[in-house]
From TrEMBL:
Highest taxon listed in the record's lineage: Eukaryota
Biased composition (Polar residues): 7-18
Official protein name in the record: Uncharacterized protein
InterPro entries: At3g17800-like, DUF760
PANTHER family according to UniProt: EXPRESSED PROTEIN, UV-B-INDUCED PROTEIN
Annotated spans, Disordered: 1-24
C-alpha cells in the first residue's frame, strides 16, 4: 500500500505565484497512473474526461472556479476510486480464474458510463454530502471510451451495483470527510429565506486544468487505497457491517 507520492497540501493561493494559482505542487501524474491496473485506469481516464471535458488536451489553461465545487469533485472522486478498486478486485479475480462473463472481449462494448454509482454512495452518506452532493459527471459532457471493466460493471444487477457503490464503514466515511475538509476547509453553505443557496461566501480559486487532473487522480487513488486499508483492518478487527 506504499505509493511514495505526497498528497497535495491545503488548497490556498500561493504567495510565490503572482497569478494566485493554488496548484503549485508537483504533478506526479505518471506515478499516480501506475498505481492502478490497466482496466481500472481506463475507467479513471474516462472519469477525468468527463470532468475536464475538452480541456484534457489543454492542461496549462487556468480557470477561476468555486472552491466548494472543486471540493465536491474531489470527494466524489474519492468515492469513485473506492468503488472502482472494489469492482476491479473482483474483476481481476474472475479474470485470473477465467470465469468472466461472456462478451467482455467484444469491441462493441457499451459506452454508458456508470458514474451514478458515486452519487448513490453520496446519498447513502449525508455526512459527506456537503462536499460531494450535487456533483454529476453528466454535467461536464465529454465522450467516453468503451472498456472491459465498464462492461463488467454494467453486467451487475441494480442491487449488486448499489452494494458495491456503498462505502461499508462509518470510519471510512469519516476519513473522506476529514481529509476533504483538511484540503478545502469546512464548507459554509447558507440557505436564503427563499430556499436557495447563498453563494456570496463561496471562495473562488485559480487552478490550472493540469492541477485539476492531479487532484482528481489523487482523489481516485486515495479512495482505492482506502478500500485496501479498510479491508486489511477489517480482516483483523471485523468492524465492517456487511
Amino acid at each position: 500500500m506504499e505509493a511514495n507520492v505526497s498528497l497535495v497540501p491545503s488548497i490556498t493561493p500561493s504567495s510565490s505565484d503572482p497569478s494566485g494559482r493554488v496548484d503549485t505542487w508537483p504533478t506526479k501524474v505518471e506515478k499516480l497512473e501506475k498505481l492502478h491496473s490497466s482496466e481500472m485506469y481506463e475507467m479513471i481516464h474516462n472519469h477525468l474526461a468527463l470532468i475536464l471535458g475538452p480541456r484534457m488536451g489543454d492542461l496549462a489553461s487556468v480557470a477561476q472556479i468555486s472552491k466548494l465545487r472543486v471540493g465536491q469533485v474531489y470527494a466524489a472522486s474519492v468515492m469513485y476510486g473506492y468503488f472502482l478498486k472494489r469492482v476491479d478486485q473482483r474483476f481481476q479475480l474472475e479474470k485470473s480464474m477465467k470465469i468472466l462473463p461472456g462478451g467482455l472481449d467484444d469491441s462493441k462494448t457499451s459506452v454508458e458510463q456508470p458514474e451514478n454509482v458515486t452519487f448513490k454512495a453520496v446519498s447513502s452518506h449525508p455526512e459527506v454530502g456537503s462536499f460531494a452532493g450535487g456533483v454529476s459527471a453528466k454535467g461536464f459532457g465529454s465522450e467516453i471510451k468503451p472498456s472491459r471493466l465498464r462492461t463488467y460493471v454494467m453486467s451487475f444487477d441494480s442491487e449488486t451495483l448499489q452494494r458495491y457503490a456503498t462505502i461499508r464503514s462509518r470510519e471510512a466515511v469519516g476519513i473522506i470527510e476529514k481529509h476533504t475538509e483538511a484540503l478545502f476547509g469546512k464548507p459554509e453553505i447558507v440557505i436564503t429565506p427563499e430556499g436557495t443557496v447563498d453563494s456570496s461566501k463561496d471562495e473562488q480559486i485559480k487552478i490550472s486544468f493540469g492541477g485539476m487532473k492531479r487532484l482528481v487522480l489523487e482523489a481516485v487513488t486515495f479512495g482505492s487505497f482506502l478500500w485496501d486499508v479498510e479491508s486489511h483492518v477489517d480482516a483483523r478487527y471485523h468492524f465492517v457491517l456487511n
